[in-house]
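Workshop exercise sheet. Pairs work together: one partner reads the sequence aloud, the other fills in the structure field after running the prediction. Swap roles for the next sheet.
Pair: D.N. / O.F.
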Amino acid sequence: MKKMTIAAAMTALFAAPAVHAQSSLTIYGIADVGLVGESGGSAGNVTRITSGPASSSRIGFKGSEDLGSGVSAFFILENGYSIDTGTLASANVLFNRQSLVGLRSGAGTLTLGRQTTPYHNALVAVADPFGTGYAGTIKNAFPDWGTNARSNNTIMYAMPESNGVSGDIAYSPGEQAGDATAGRQIGASLGYSAGPLNLRLAYNGRNGDTVAAAGTPAVMRGTGSNKLFAANYEVGVVRIYFAVGVDKGYNSAPLGNTSNPYGGVAPTASTDGREVLIGIAARISQGTLMASVMRKDDRTAYNQDASTWGVGYVHPLSKRTALYVAYGSIHNRNGAGYTVANNSEAGTGDRAYNLGLRHTF
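Structure field:
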């Protein structure tokens, strides 16, 4: 009798959460592959099959559990892969795109782990008609590379949307012994949506200092920052885009291609610059036409400015499958090193086209 009582109590203890909590698990992803042609760089004409010109190929796992009282726990593990070779998009990194766990309630959402920055999210969701993909990507002029796009060891809080107002704030400690400032990153955004109008302000700041180590002195570089204002507005079948960026300080605007793509004297990444974008996305028949023009104003002594334009078209074959074509061009000045990129690659020259197929699952 006593054994039965203990067994019943243990069963009740471990079975109770399963009775009261609801959980879910979803596997999702994108398989995107395209023909990419590039020209204008020192590498000459380059033609290849590329994974993810429109949207980086990925496979992800996300799940949630209802904890009761309006609170839920959730996680996201997202891996980028190269569909053309079957390899990891980042060597020796399993979940290079996102790896986070969090809590969600009526008071907002709290997440911890590797995450996209508020600055990058604003570029994707509000600023760029290409959604940071294709040969017309905003990356051709705006600094959406490295830790500007994703940051490790990040704590992020997103407020619940109220009357069209939304916002978030992110903090990543530098994790350098003896100095709480060195290497830390802070980001934030504030948005407003009402009907056809979307507005977003975003900030990203990363301290470039490193503490002294054995045989290596400390390096003090200060904080490099990115400020962004983005807006889009829908008029009939056309959505109009506008964005302005301000970059200042060490590593605030890293170049996508750092291998001196044009030969000669290597270009210098700007530490004081401005960017502006004007673009559209128009519904044409079943598809979407995208276009933008951008200008990079380098305010350093190098004066390495650039102007760029891009155009693309996406034609859906179904709700999950689409064909696309895109073209981008850059005019560099005074030895600037900007290259026509896509969602997955920095590019090798000042002209490029994409022709591809994307499937979501």
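Discussion prompt: The chain has two helices and 18 strands. What would you look at next?
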